[in-house]
UniProtKB/TrEMBL annotation:
Active site as annotated: D403
Subunit description: Homodimer or homotetramer.
The protein's name in its UniProt record: Polyamine aminopropyltransferase
Gene3D superfamilies, alphabetized: Vaccinia Virus protein VP39 (3.40.50.150)
HAMAP family listed in its UniProt record: Spermidine_synth
NCBIfam families membership: MFS_SpdSyn, PRK03612.1
Localization: Cell membrane
Membrane topology recorded in Swiss-Prot or TrEMBL: Multi-pass membrane protein
All residue ranges annotated as the PABS domain in the record: 249-499
Length: 548
């Protein structure tokens, strides 16, 4: 039981609301140090939980800015509520802190696995809630925020019980340890936990560290401030939490394989985490079409990739095409179409993820699909961010092909900005052409026509068109619904641009595309024109306009 303070002598400082003097097994100075060390560790774990939720939500739902805003704003709000609620626990600060840390370790450590499990086995989140992904994300953010917010008032109480000081000094000490811990957690997540352990194991490991730190602080330093019964309850609770986290860590590989099969189907051949993204290959053997997923989104489907790549490349080759640069396109499929033209002397492929290029070289099915493009001596690969590369492009090109993710993905927004197209204009030869994948037309016309307006704002003339999209029977990966149907776009939109005017057509003497004719291209351009959204402002680096 906590012993009350003796009456303060005249002129002594007030007890600042402290309930009683802690009975420590160490000297007060060492006790303060251990409490601040606990603050440091708990703050690091708390920030890892936040970043884990942001990263997984962006992976599963896209639009990292929106997901980060939801997670952080809900957590900050919940932390305030948790701080207020913790006032009731101050008389039992040690026991309350121990219970909160055990709960936080369990919820935070298992949050990533729970999110991924629900996603993998429900498919369409809307079947779970009206706005399923965000509801689950908010629930975890709210719970973790409440628990994190309750830590500081209880830690303030505990540190004041060790040695009374003015509230300002105590707050400064606690927040200094808290902010330094947050810095360490924020750096550890992208540079240590994510590349070394992955999202799921990293979260479980963080939960274990959190449970050990919280349990050790209460059961070691403040054990005399709680009853025997409370000590046993906290000990059993922490052991159960550590047991659950350890069991999940042992089973995490089996869980990931089962979840991956639920998400992508039974024929996953390759699943790897590069320094940039998760890469998954399915099919490609025994007559099954090959599918390539990057960060959960279908980027290549063997059923219809030729329609996409022929529509992207061949209209741009209608003119001089000796020097070609492909921005993105690490799978080698756009390069395959470019290399069909005998007049091509060099092809520069600027790809951010070297892991995708390695896979395109070494995986037999993908290399066969891209026609072993990387074995051609005319192809030169540059591992770089496309924006950075274009700022220092060493020469001009007859054809610039932007084979990039959809503009609605936040990480890609700068590659669809007016500034980027200004760099592309600078890299174009006087009679060169720029071909841009601009996202689906039918489902996101405003985004598509914003790309067109942005290219025109950079000083280029444009010719927009589209091609038919995903195979109607395809449903796998995060782009499928609970029933297995596809949510992937129904078409692909493209914009062809040049300095002096655009002649949309196919090269009269070039190789004949397998899926595209000049008549179909002209009809697609007319259909696309009917969807025009007028008077759209361009997208810039400081004002991106591609959010849905």
């Amino acid at each position: 039981m906590i012993e009350p303070h003796a009456p303060a002598p005249p002129g002594a400082p007030p007890p600042w609301g402290v309930q009683g003097q802690a009975r420590l097994p160490v000297r007060p100075g060492m006790g303060r140090f251990l409490v601040l060390a606990g603050v440091f560790v708990c703050a690091a774990c708390g920030l890892v939980y936040e970043l884990e939720l942001v990263a997984l939500a962006a992976y599963l739902m896209g639009d990292s800015v929106t997901q980060a805003s939801v997670v952080l704003s809900v957590m900050v709000f919940a932390m305030g509520v948790g701080s207020l609620a913790a006032k009731r626990l101050r008389p039992r600060a040690a026991a309350g802190f121990g219970a909160i840390e055990a709960a936080l370790a369990l919820v935070g450590g298992c949050s990533a696995m729970a999110l991924y499990a629900v996603f993998a086995w429900t498919g369409d989140w809307g079947g779970l809630w009206a706005n399923g992904p965000r509801c689950l994300l908010v629930a975890f953010s709210l719970t973790i925020g409440l628990l994190i917010g309750a830590e500081i008032p209880l830690l303030m109480e505990l540190i004041q019980r060790i040695r009374r000081q003015d509230p300002g000094g105590a707050v400064a000490d606690l927040f200094a340890a808290d902010y330094v811990g947050a810095l360490v957690g924020g750096l550890a997540f992208p540079f240590l936990l994510l590349p070394t352990f992955g999202q799921l194991t990293g979260a479980l490991l963080t939960g274990a560290v959190n449970a050990v730190a919280g349990g050790a602080l209460v059961l070691g330093l403040f054990r005399r401030d709680v009853t025997r019964r409370v000590r046993w309850i906290l000990l059993v609770a922490n052991l159960l939490v550590l047991g659950l986290l350890a069991s999940a860590a042992v089973l995490v590989d089996d869980f990931e394989r089962a979840a991956r099969r639920a998400v992508y189907g039974a024929d996953v051949r390759v699943a790897l985490q590069t320094e940039v993204q998760e890469v998954v290959l399915t099919g490609g053997t025994h007559g099954r079409p090959l599918n390539l997923f990057l960060d959960g989104r279908l980027r290549v489907s063997g059923r219809d990739e030729d329609r996409y790549h022929e529509a992207l490349v061949h209209p741009a080759m209608n003119g001089p095409h000796a020097r070609v640069i492909i921005l993105g396109g690490g799978d080698g499929l756009a390069a395959r179409e470019v290399l069909r033209y005998p007049g091509v002397r060099s092809v520069d492929v600027v790809e951010l993820d070297a892991g995708v290029v390695r896979l395109a070289r070494r995986d037999q099915a993908l290399a066969e699909l891209n026609g072993h493009a990387y074995d051609d001596q005319r192809v030169h690969v540059v591992t770089s961010d496309a924006f950075r590369w274009m700022r220092g492009a060493p020469s001009t090109y007859d054809v610039v092909i932007c084979d990039l993710p959809d503009p609605g993905i936040t990480a890609s927004a700068k590659l669809y900005s007016q500034e980027f197209y200004g760099l592309a204009l600078r890299a174009l030869a006087p009679d060169g052409r720029l071909a841009v994948h601009a996202g689906p037309v039918s489902s996101r016309p405003r985004v598509f026509w914003t790309v067109d307006a942005t290219i025109r704002a950079a000083g280029l003339f444009t010719a927009p068109y589209r091609a038919g999209g995903r195979h109607s029977g395809f449903g796998a990966g995060p782009d499928r619904t609970a029933g297995g149907a596809s949510k992937a776009p129904g078409d692909w939109g493209f914009v062809l641009a040049s300095r002096t005017g655009v002649r949309l057509g196919l090269p009269p003497h070039g190789p004949r595309p397998r899926t595209l004719t000049a008549e179909a291209l002209a009809a697609a351009a007319r259909e696309t024109a009917r969807t025009r959204v007028p008077d759209l402002p361009p997208s810039t680096l400081v004002h991106p306009r591609y959010a849905d």
